[in-house]
Amino acid sequence: MRVLSKPARGGSEAVKKWGFIAMHGGVAAAFMFLLQRFALSASLESSLLWALTFAVCAAGLAYKQANR
Prior knowledge:
Number of helices: 2
Order of helices and strands: HH
Shape: elongated
Helix content: over 70%
Distance between the termini: 21 Å
Mean pLDDT: 88
Structural class: mainly alpha
């Protein structure tokens, strides 16, 4: 029977993984902030709150995807 464990990641691969997660969260936050603030004319506080919410959700999804 074959072992299905993943090989250990090198240092540069771990940096790429966390960079991917950070980039995904940052792009989602920027998109949501711009959409809320300028397209929907929401207040600054509301735009920042939605941007933070979407950044956390996007980073979580990217983390799950990177660990596949």
